[in-house]
Amino acid sequence: MTNSNKTSNKSLNDIFSKFNKKTFKYLNISTCLIADTFVAFYLYLVYANPKTYHESFKIAYQSLRLVDPSIADGIKDPNFQNQLIQLMIQTVISIICIYLIIHFIVYIFRIYNKKFAYGYIKLYAWTGGVLMTITALFNLETPRVAMFLIPGLLLLFNALGFKHESQMKEE
Hints:
Blueprint: H1 3-17, H2 21-47, H3 50-67, H4 69-76, H5 78-111, H6 115-138, H7 143-146, H8 149-164
Helix pairs in contact: 2-5, 2-6, 2-8, 3-4, 3-5, 5-6, 6-8
């Protein structure tokens, strides 16, 4: 281990030694809730936007016009488009709600020290932390993607805490 690794590891030890297992558990839940909020907001922002679907209808119309003009004319109908857009938006909202409900249930189980919830949050912290951070860093010019740097770094901090949990005091 190099000198800089020892120093950074020592500073992480110092930071995480201030936590007990109970406060770390609540850190797990709160960082994941923050990440969930960002994910839900992003999904809503992108997929509950009628403009997204209007662009898709234009592309579909161009393609279908070559295959079957009568179907293409049906896609151009504004009533059909509005009904389909409302269906898609309601579907997105339903998916976001299901996602949040499932995660809330996992967080409740984490409060009660259930192993599967512990493992799920640990996996979520590592994968979410790495993927959100990398995605944000490669898309800094797009604010709605770059915003994932915040929950990504929080989740990485959370994930690193799992490595130091054995040194934390009991609740």
